[in-house]
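pasting input
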Amino acid sequence: MNPAPALSLPGRDLIGIQGLSAPEITGLLDLAEEFIELNRQIEKKRTTLRGRTQINLFFEASTRTQSSFEIAGKRLGADVMNMSVGSSSVKKGETLIDTAITLNAMHPDILVVRHHASGAVELLARKVDCCVVNAGDGAHEHPTQALLDALTIRRNKGRIGGLVVAICGDVAHSRVARSNIILLQALGAQVRVVAPSTLLPTGIENFGVEVHRTMEDGIASADIVMMLRLQRERMAGAYIPSVREYFHYFGLDEAKLRYAKPDALVMHPGPMNRGVEIDSSVADGPQSLIREQVEMGVAVRMAVLDTLARKLPNA
Amino acid sequence: MRDGLRGADPRPLLLANARVVDPSRGADFHGDVFLAEGVVKDAAFGLAAAGAPDGAEVIDCRGAVVAPGLIDMRAFVGEPGAEHRETLATASHAAAAGGVTTIICQPDTDPVVDDPAIVDFILRRARDTAVVRVHPMAAITKGLKGEEMTEIGLLKAAGAVAFTDAHKSVASALLLRRALTYARDFDALVVHHTEDASLSDGAMNESEFASRLGLSGCAKAAETIVLERDVRLVAGARGRYHAAALTCADSLAVLERAKEAGLPVTASVSINHLSFNELDIGGYRTFFKLRPPLRSEEEREALIRALASGLIDVVVSDHWPQDVEGKRLPFSEAEPGAVGLETLLSAALRLVHADKVDLVNLLHALSTRPAEILGLRGGTLKPGAPADVIVFDPDMPFVLDKTQLKSRSRNTPFDEARLAGRVLRTIVAGSIVYEYV
């Protein structure tokens, strides 16, 4: 393998896609490409993070993202520890800074953090000396998801610029949507959002996206149809009348997918609610990239950890 | 200092060579103010030239402004129940340093001020520990639960100057109507927080910026809907009504119509909403998390215009101390509120320096008007008025350092702000309770 290209990120941490330049994003994707090859070999280990300690601190349960970061860290040679903090207590936020200070005293090199409150990862990052990777904060950002989505798109379409990407579903509560909108626009894609008005955030018209309220309009001639998980646990305000009605109008099935380009590809960040936002025939169909997204997740996270580790003291 | 309010006769004071601003008369002139026996004896040109009365201390103000002390209609003091955030003593020292000579405190203490004994407790604690005047407001509903009316008559007799459910709206229109109707019989003032709970269950203003931060929003309509409802209730009940803190132009339009219709409706705006907009939240800065939330710049400008035109009656600090633990949290989980007693005047003077409001009108909204609305004797320099007077240099520049605040909590959004205008002396009942050194 060639030596990794020299690249860097603007800060010590990766809190969001906001603030990254197009070359920085492309640099990360290029590096991730190398790790895809590595991950397909029998010997998957690198030593970039040897001796480093990575702590995955998850205030919100997530099997997929947490294991993806764990594998990424381990393949780069880091010692990885997982910490899941109970999310039942109402006052859980109280422990955030204390937890940060406590962990910081153990001298970790990398903290991977997920939290249910927007801005919480940034807050924590200010209290620690190591580098912090945002694994999702509230409805704010989920940068590694956007990067892995971009990598998946680029490998299948050969480019991102000029593509029409329709992001469909619960945009209002989705950090995946926010990070993806910023990233895809930075790389020149034409982004649409498709959702009932109750699931669109205020001011979405000013995000530079096309806003559609029906799937037929929204995914017409789209190159990529990106479905979002309907965050049922966040539906306290009854944003939609019923799952049945939601699936009828916004669930992606084969009939609706026919409005997109014939070679359109379907994505979903997972975990899927089959029969709610996506039909199994589409999720498992020939146009689905959903399993590939998971593979790209490990590669992208390795690229992020590798890049940030270069900035660590004594690197 | 503690003797300020109780003490025997303070020495007579002649505040000489001052720019005397008496908003109760619309007056702004060069002259002197003579205080004795706890009251203003005279405020006129040439008092000093005529010679200081026997035994009077003469203070050369060197052209600084002498004005009635400020009356802050909305401040949370943690006593009883949250003394770790603020006590009557610490709040009063903060007030004195900010030129506030009368604090009207909120009833959302623990226990809630819904019983005459608690009004009495606060008044006695204030007499014993505070250096400025303190008047409690009592709850409109028992326990602030919005279910049963409090003993408005007895509470008023005990010393409650107004009735409010603090930062809660009374959701039941029927209950508020009865409270307004009943309060009228006692000429009691209802101060109402106008925010529909179901529409304001968010972390900040509902806006594009909130969407970008991934924070849930509180709609402006939450405020206007409640205000509109309240105005209709006042039209029938005719009780005196004061909107506690308006934040948007839509509400101002409702207020204007109510006033044009001759209804007994008045309103406040908080200094925070005159000073900041939602963008000041920046990267989740919890010191800018307020209730009601900061709105857009457009709304802020509308509030300033309404203050200048007199549509807005009163400017309040909405002093709301929070301890470190309440603010060092993710934005959506942090407590709302900002301390403001000490910065109220300096921050408000920004509007004067920016030529948005003139000094007399500003001080009218900070002293004369709240006194009128509450039925207090202060807010004026007319002979016989209480000798609650401040001396301030409206131009003295400084950078606010939150560690220097006298309040027990330091959650100020003005930290490191450049301000101009500093209180030099605060006098309550004729005694100097604060002196800038």
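fyi The mean pLDDT of chain A is 91.
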